[in-house]
Backbone:
């Protein structure tokens, strides 16, 4: 999914994205709420590895992405019994071939979020208004150290809670640490659901505005569970964040 001949327009767009990222970093506290007693070094790493770029795509770009995937997604039923119990009220697919305009958007994601190539199949996750993504850590067997997603159709709140950092690290390309035998999840699981209680722990709530891009890597990727709060609990700094149907266009790199 790498565009070989980058047009001047793409270059201008990438510069715009970089400028947006700088602005977002400058006001990051406006979209991140920290809870609990964070060690200073961990909070610094978290801020580096969990990035949000607001207005990463324009309204017309959101519309063209939606128009490409909607004919297929609308034929699927929302599922409420996912095999790994991590998601309820969802439908999903993967897509390799995209219309040229949307391919340019994904190339921007690659340029901004990844050091190299991304996996050829892009994950599309459609969450119903009453759907929920439970706390989980994506398996190191199926994706590498970075996960990046564009949020379509709705604002939402992502919560990241500190968990066992030794359990889900990627030791080297193609390998990952093995879970301990007691209380471990199957190694083949796509999403692990470790216990990460809020009490006596530290965590962060991240506001994901519609049309934003999140980039979750390294520390944020391995040391924290992540979830999308249900509409009943979708609040940020005490203010309700209405969550309607939400589609994520998710890119990953190779393990």
Residues:
């Amino acid at each position: 999914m790498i565009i070989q001949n980058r047009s001047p327009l793409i270059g201008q767009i990438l510069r715009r994205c970089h400028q947006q990222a700088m602005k977002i970093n400058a006001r990051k506290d406006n979209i991140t709420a920290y809870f609990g007693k964070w060690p200073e070094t961990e909070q610094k790493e978290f801020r580096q590895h969990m990035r949000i770029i607001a207005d990463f795509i324009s309204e017309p770009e959101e519309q063209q992405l939606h128009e490409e995937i909607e004919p297929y997604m609308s034929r699927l039923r929302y599922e409420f019994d996912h095999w790994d119990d991590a998601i309820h009220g969802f439908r999903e697919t993967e897509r390799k071939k995209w219309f040229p305009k949307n391919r340019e958007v994904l190339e921007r994601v690659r340029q901004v979020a990844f050091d190299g190539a991304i996996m050829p199949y892009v994950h599309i996750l459609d969450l119903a208004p009453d759907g929920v993504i439970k706390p989980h850590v994506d398996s190191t067997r199926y994706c590498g150290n970075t996960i990046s997603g564009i949020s379509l159709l709705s604002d939402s709140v992502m919560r990241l809670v500190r968990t066992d950092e030794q359990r889900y690290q990627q030791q080297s390309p193609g390998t990952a640490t093995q879970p301990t035998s007691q209380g471990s999840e199957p190694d083949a699981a796509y999403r692990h659901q470790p216990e990460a209680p809020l009490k006596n722990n530290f965590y962060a709530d991240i506001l994901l505005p519609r049309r934003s891009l999140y980039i979750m890597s390294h520390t944020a990727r391995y040391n924290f569970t992540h979830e999308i709060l249900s509409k009943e609990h979708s609040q940020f700094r005490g203010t309700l964040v209405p969550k309607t149907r939400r589609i994520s266009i998710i890119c990953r790199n190779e393990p």
The longest strand covers residues 122-138. The helical segments are 8-26, 40-49, 59-73, 100-113, 218-222.
